[in-house]
Design a protein that fits this description.
The complex is a heterodimer of chains A (525) and B (236).
Chain A lengths: L24 H21 L4 H20 L12 H26 L9 H4 L6 H11 L4 H17 L5 H30 L4 H21 L3 H6 L3 H8 L5 H30 L3 H8 L11 H14 L2 H20 L9 H11 L14 H6 L4 H27 L8 H28 L16 H25 L5 H26 L2 H11 L2
Helix pairs in contact in A: 1-5, 2-6, 3-6, 3-7, 3-10, 5-11, 6-7, 7-8, 7-10, 7-11, 10-11, 13-17, 14-15, 14-17, 15-17, 15-18, 15-19, 17-18, 18-19, 18-20
Chain B lengths: L6 E10 L2 E11 L4 E6 L5 H8 L7 E6 L2 E2 L4 H7 E4 L11 H11 L6 H10 L15 H13 L5 E5 L7 H16 L3 E5 L3 H7 L2 E6 L2 E7 L5 H12 L1
Parallel strand pairs in B: 3-8, 3-9, 6-7, 7-8
Antiparallel strand pairs in B: 1-2, 1-4, 4-5, 9-10
Classes of the chains: A mainly alpha (525), B alpha/beta (236).
Chain lengths: 525, 236
């Protein structure tokens, strides 16, 4: 995102006319913090539904407080049974959060932008500001929130009541520390990726990491490895109450977070000095002409497919989405009945790459496309097909990878999984196209860091998608245990009819020229 | 004029919520003629062009193109028109050739390839015809938008800011497109801020202000120093 020397690099008010015009590191950091506050305020001004944003913030606060307190009063809390099992899993959970923060920041090329590249171009925004902005936006993500709530809830369930508040302080500090570390790794990877032979190096690193994880799993060393994760030290400190051990743990996390936040600026500056190779390559790629498709729908689908697969955030995002959960399922030895949770997860993630603002694919070309003489329903159908196949293919890859060690499924397990796949795909496509029509945004999906809607809207979309698809996944997970394949089919039919009806309603609304003009004018703005 | 106008706009109003972008414009444009739409930013030029292209429906008033009502016969009107929008107008991850293919398929054109190649060459886009347009400069994008508007030799050519950021060769090529269209009897509407270029390309000029038409004059009256003064007076 940085496009010019920043106020932090070249401040007007402290820049002498001769000699070294660079401010010191502390002054630069202070200016960057000030810039983040200004940009955050600017973004807040753009929030359309202020009341809804306030309600959502209160809901988030209420859920967070509930997650941090309520489990402490549930039956079995602090007991020797389930609570003890959860206690053993807390260090692995903390390590998992660190890894997921890294993966998510790497996939988005250094985290999300507080202000888009185009909007930022006239202003002196430094890489440090960009880095801090990405850090600030990292929690505005339902995946991050769910992890945080689960960790807070788990600790509330296992910690002694008199030590709960102090334990949760350590959990919060861990969330800050792991997010900051994820950001450092992501910027470092982005700097490498943009360097000489960067793409080959990053791909090799990822393959080596995958193979290493596979080797550990195949050697049966996953359990012993998880038992020795360094996060055990933090859990012990968290549960120590008001002691020196707790104070030391908190101090280590505070210092570690400050160091990680400051360190992140170094690779962020390095990355900013290098050209984004993936994006550059995409924009200069030659695509040899192919024969004309026979039908109008065919050429519209081809155009939309090109818009999806030639976009860096979508290619990178779908790869992570398709392969990541599949590998987790593979290494976690997930059974067929449990795999019904995967398609919803992947389809929801896929929709968040572009589906929730599907008409933004045309960018400013939307105005020209709208002048082309074709029925609006054909345009709608083409976009529906492309979104459905994008989500469907990603889900299928996940399931195929996850199924490698799951053995041969029974007819009812297979029926449940296929039903889940079809139902959640239609569910997510329907929801996405409905939102695309209701709340279009002008978004340029060139940058690997671009998202199809503003951060607050993305949180709303992801929460709604996660809720509905998780419910569907759990429903079919239950039917996968009933030894009759027809049950899944019977459950699927009303779900499909409901989603299809809503999709057809959206298709009908798209035919209204006033609605279409609003969408087209907005995405082309 | 003995012939009826090809483009006939009566009391056109376009509202976006509280904002009235066009407030009662009347406009006639005839076959074989080029008409310039002049005016300041926000005068309603681009919105009027979007209405004529069938992209934005009118809130009130009547708009007919070749006798067809824009509300009822939108699809048929889109067949008749070629539109170069004011902003971008290009699908960012498609190549110029893919844009031409899409337009040709949707307009059911046959044997269009040679003309497509020729137009790309005339606008010096031949060597980038297989490159995605997302990496194009602003001027390249504008030139390609003109090519896309003109490729199917439409009966009504709508050019919204076609000269914006375009180099002299692109401007010349656009003049040729307008001249060719006039010669084959097409109606051209050209919206621009650049009075000099509008005067060169068009026979008639309509000046818009605050969403309304304030003058309809012979383009010659807008040329030179005198024309500049007259134009300024109309804008204030």
């Amino acid at each position: 995102m940085p496009t010019a020397l920043s106020s932090t690099d070249d401040g007007i008010d402290h820049g002498p006319t001769t000699g070294d015009r660079r401010p010191g590191y502390v002054a630069a950091a202070r200016r960057a913090l000030g810039d983040v506050a200004i940009l955050f305020w600017f973004r807040r001004q753009g929030v359309r539904r202020r009341h809804l944003a306030r309600v959502l913030s209160l809901v988030f606060l209420a859920i967070t407080l509930s997650a941090a307190i309520v489990p402490a009063f549930l039956p079995g809390a602090r007991g020797a049974g389930r609570a003890f099992d959860i206690l053993l899993l807390v260090p692995s959970g903390m390590a998992g959060i660190l890894l997921l923060n890294m993966a998510s920041a790497i996939a988005s090329g250094g985290g999300r932008e507080l202000i888009s590249r185009d909007q930022a171009s006239p202003y002196p925004i430094s890489p440090t500001t960009d880095h801090l902005g990405a850090l600030l936006l990292a929690p505005l993500n339902i995946a991050w929130m769910i992890q945080a709530w689960i960790l807070l809830g788990s600790v509330a369930y296992v910690a002694p009541l008199d030590k709960l508040a102090l334990a949760q302080v350590i959990v919060v500090l861990w969330l800050v520390f792991s997010t900051a570390c994820g950001q450092v790794v992501a910027w470092a990877m982005e700097a490498i990726r943009r360097g000489p032979r960067g793409i080959a190096i990053t791909r090799s690193l990822l393959v080596a990491l995958g193979l290493g994880a596979g080797a550990v799993q195949l050697a049966g060393r996953t359990g012993p490895l998880l038992d020795r994760v360094p996060t055990v030290w933090f859990v012990v400190g968290a549960l120590s109450g008001l002691t020196w051990r707790w104070a030391l743990t908190a101090a280590v996390l505070v210092v570690g977070s400050v160091v990680a936040i400051a360190m992140g600026a170094v690779p962020a500056h390095l990355a900013a000095r290098r050209m984004p190779r993936d994006e550059q390559r995409m924009e200069t790629d030659q695509h040899e002409p192919r024969p004309m498709p026979r039908s109008v729908l065919g050429i519209l689908i081809r155009t939309d497919r090109a818009s999806v697969w030639r976009s860096v955030p979508m290619r990178r995002g779908v790869l992570v989405l398709a392969v990541g959960p599949g590998l987790v399922a593979l290494f976690g030895n997930l059974q067929w009945s449990e795999m019904t949770i995967l398609p919803g997860l992947v389809a929801s993630g896929g929709a968040l790459l572009f589906g929730v603002n599907a008409w933004c694919l045309d960018g400013r070309g939307a105005l020209w496309r709208e002048n082309l003489p074709t029925s609006p329903t054909v345009l709608f159908d083409a976009r529906t097909v492309v979104l459905a196949e994008f989500l469907g293919v990603a889900s299928m890859i996940t399931v195929l990878v996850g199924a490698l060690r799951a053995g041969i499924p029974t007819s009812y397990e297979l029926a449940a999984l296929v039903a889940t796949l079809v139902v959640v795909t239609l569910q997510v496509v329907g929801g996405s196209l409905r939102w695309s029509l209701k709340h279009p945004y002008p978004v340029d999906l060139r940058s690997a860091r671009a998202t199809p809607a503003p951060p607050a809207a993305m949180v709303g979309y992801s929460a709604r998608l996660a809720t509905s698809t998780t419910f569907t996944g759990l429903l079919f997970s239950g039917s996968a245990h009933v030894p009759d394949w027809r049950l899944s089919l019977i459950i699927a039919i009303p779900c499909l009819m409901w989603s299809a009806t809503r999709l057809l309603r959206t298709r009908h609304r798209w035919q209204d020229p006033v609605v279409r003009a609003r969408v087209v004018s907005t995405v082309a703005a | 004029m003995s012939q009826p106008p090809v483009v006939d706009v009566r009391s056109l109003h376009v509202r976006f919520g509280e904002v009235e972008a066009v407030a009662g414009i009347d406009l006639e444009a005839y076959a074989g003629q080029a008409t310039a739409l002049l005016g300041r930013n926000g005068a309603g030029k681009s919105t009027t062009m979007r209405v004529l292209a069938g992209v934005v429906p009118p809130t009130a008033g009547t708009v007919t193109i070749a006798g067809l009502d824009i509300r009822k016969d939108t699809l048929a009107i889109k067949q008749l028109t070629g539109y170069c929008p004011d902003v971008g107008g290009l699908v960012p991850r498609a190549t110029p050739w893919e844009h031409l293919q899409l337009s040709a398929r949707l307009r059911r054109l046959d044997g269009w390839e040679e003309r497509g190649r020729d137009l790309l060459e005339r606008f010096e886009l031949g060597d980038v015809m297989n490159r995605v347009t997302g990496g194009f400069s602003h001027g390249m994008g504008r030139r390609l938008s003109v090519v896309l508007a003109a490729m199917h030799q439409p009966q009504v050519l709508l050019l919204d800011e076609p000269f914006d950021g375009v180099d002299p060769i692109g401007v010349e090529a656009t003049f040729e497109i307008i001249a060719d269209a006039r010669a084959r009897g097409a109606t051209i509407l050209l919206s621009t801020h650049l009075r000099d270029l509008a005067v060169q390309a068009c026979g008639t000029a309509l000046v818009l202000r605050g969403g309304s038409r304030v003058a309809a004059v012979d383009a010659g009256e807008m040329s030179g120093e005198e024309g500049a003064r007259a134009y300024r007076a109309l804008l204030d």
